[in-house]
Structure formats: C-alpha cells, structure tokens
Amino acid sequence: MPAKGKHRRPKSSPISRGMVAAGTGGAALAIPLLGATGAHAAVKNAAVAVAPQRAVRAASAFAAAPAVAPQAAPTTYQVKSGDCLSKIAEDHRLDGWHKLYQDNRSVVGDDPALIRPGMKLTIGAKSHATASHTSTTASHTSTTASHTSTATSHASDRAPAATTASATTSSAAKASQGSASGFRAPLDSVSIGTPYRMAGSMWASGYHTGVDFEAQTGTTVKAVGAGTVVTAGWGGAYGNQVVIRHADGMYSQYAHLSQLSVSAGQTVTEGQQIGLSGATGNVTGPHLHFEIRTTPDYGSDVDPLAYLRQQGASL
Fold first, then answer.
1. CA separation for the pair 121, 2 (Å, rounded)
2. In sequence order, which residues have a C-beta less than 8 Å from that of residue 299 and are 6 or more positions away?
3. For residue 164, what is the domain's CATH number?
4. Could you say which DSSP state residue 304 is in?
5. Is the residue at 200 inside a domain?
6. 247 within some domain
7. What 3-state DSSP class applies to 50?
8. How do residues 183-225 score in pLDDT, each as one tens digit?
9. Which of 1, 46, 41 is nearest to 27 (CA)?
10. How far is residue 17 from each of residues 34, 36, 46, 190, measured CA to CA in Å?
C-alpha cells in the first residue's frame, strides 16, 4: 500500500532525457546522447551536410567580384618613311620597342630593324603570354568556384605559371634585341686613315666629324647594321653618300662613294652592299668617310668606332 503524502517522480525515457540541441552552421539538431562515439559521428555528418552551402556562397562571392576594367582597344599605325620601332614606341608612349615588335612580329619579320613604309602595325595589342595567362586565371577561378576544397592549391599553382609566362616573354624580348644589335665594320678589310675628332682648319667644324677608312675606288661598302635608308644621293662636300637609320634611332653615314647600290626608303640588312668607295666631293684621294650620328644631319656626330664596338662589331 503506497505511503500517504508521497509521490514518486515518474521515470523518463533514456532517449527523451538525452535530447540536446547542437548548432552546426546555424542548423539546430536534436542528437540523442547515445554515447560519445555516436554524438561525434552525428556532429561530423551535420558539418558535411553544411559544406555544399559554403561552396555555393564561395561561388556567389566569385560571381559578385567586380570585373577588371578592360584595356583600351588596340589601334593601327601605318609606317612612314624614316620610321623605326623605337621612334614609333616613343611617339605612342610605349614602354620600349620590344613589345611593339613582339606584337607585330608576323608583319615585321625576324629582323625588327627592317620595317617598310606602308606596313600596318598594331599598337597596344595584348601579347600571347598575357592572353594565355588571362585564360588560365579564368579557368582556375571556375575550378575554384566548383571545387572549394581545392581552391587554395589551384591558386598557388597559378603563381609559378605566371612567372614562367613572364620569363618566356622576357627571353623572347632579349632574343629580338640581340638579333637587332648585329653590327660590323663598313669594309671587309679595315685600315684607319684620319681618326675621329682630329683637329684641323680644313674642316668646317674645326675637327674631323667621322673616321676615314682607307679604300681604293670600287671597294665594296656594306651597311654596318640593319636599318632604313633615309638618304642616298649627292651630299655636297661629302659627294655621293648614304645615310641609314638603325633600330636604336642612331644613323650611320657613308661618304665619297663612287657608286650607290640603294635608294631612299629601302630597308637593308647588316652586311648588305650599299655602294662602292670612291673620291667624290671634297677629297684628296679615294677613301670611305664614315660617321655615326644621333640625327641624319651634319653636326650630330659621335665616336663611330666606340659605337660599333658597343654594338658588338669587331674592329
């Protein structure tokens, strides 16, 4: 018979007594306390269930990222007489002539100094390396959005790829610069007569503005480097002369020629015959008067032998 005034507390089920709320990523889960191992497995399963939601949020973040501002559209430039890549790059405020050459190599050819009037060059074009890198970056971004778990490894992989593309572009630019800097002496056999800057009243400037190479009439005279002929004809006291503009913007002059083999506007290669030596103009005998100038005109001379040696010529 039950005792008076006493009530027994009803026993609750172990299952209902063990219900707790576990928050995982904002989701409330009722997990029965069936033991430490069972609870751990339930929490792990809940985290896995929330992972796809995080991936979706990551993809949305990439989609919402502001787009990179597009570059200015490339323009077309038609080469004029007397132009060279360095002058065109300078006029259009480009960072050197090497990228201009790389962007237009299919038009210019293997020698950047050999550009001809009428050629159409693209200014501001994206290089192949840049376009390839942009495509690779877009591909990695898509992969990152689809596979959140591998985003970090793909991002780290992109950096070496960019470095390789940059190194390749740099190597190509250096290679093109080396091909453009091939220079030589204007004669096959070099014997120096009057040196550069020798003082004397016989010269209008008071000194010798070039260097004289000893040569009998009819000796083959060759271009010291690739370039464009800007003058080919009579030059007063210089007699028959040829003036060539080179890729670096410098000019070479060949005077007192007995015969001309080129004409103005023509492109020439290093070592190409441009005429024959002689004794035209104000001279006392046959020889080749040779100058290096910063402009095509008289009075802008620099040391011709020093310049040729700097360009790799053997003298």
1. 109
2. 205, 209
3. 3.10.350.10
4. H
5. no
6. yes
7. helix
8. 999 999 999 999 998 998 777 778 999 999 999 999 999 999 9
9. 46
10. 11, 15, 21, 108
Which element (helix H / strand E) includes 255?
Answer: strand 251-260
Average pLDDT of 278-300?
95
Residue 274 lies in a domain: yes
Q: What is the number of structural domains in the chain? A: 3
Largest CA distance in the chain: 152
Answer with the one of 60, 83, 115 that is the final residue of a domain.
60
Within 13 Å, how many C-alpha atoms sit on residue 224's CB side? Answer: 28
Contact 158, 136 (CB under 8 A): yes
Kindly list the distances between the CA atom of residue 78 and the CA atoms of 68, 115, 120, 124, 265, in Å, as whole numbers in the listed order.
Answer: 31, 11, 4, 14, 14
Beta carbons within 8 Å of 146's beta carbon, 6+ residues apart: 59
pTM here is: 0.46
Residues contacting 250, CB < 8 A, separation 6+:
292, 293, 294, 302, 307
| Higher pLDDT pick, 130 / 63 | 63
Most confident range (mean pLDDT) of 24-28, 114-118, 128-132 is 114-118
> How far are the Cα atoms of 92, 187, 255, 281 from residue 198, in angstroms, in the given order?
40, 21, 18, 20
User: From its phi and psi, is residue 267 left (phi > 0), alpha (psi between -120 and 50) or beta?
Assistant: beta
> Does residue 153 surpass a pLDDT of 90?
no
Domain extent, residue 166, equals 75-180
Domain shared by 52 and 81, yes or no: no
Asked if residue 314 lies in contact with residue 184, where contact means CB atoms within 8 angstroms, the answer is: yes
**CA quadruple 120, 174, 230, 302: dihedral, nearest 10:** 150
Q: Is residue 96 part of a domain?
A: yes
Whether 236 and 301 map to the same domain: the answer is yes
Cα separation of 224 and 230, whole Å?
A: 15
**CATH number assigned to the domain comprising residue 246:** 2.70.70.10
Are 56 and 138 within one domain? no
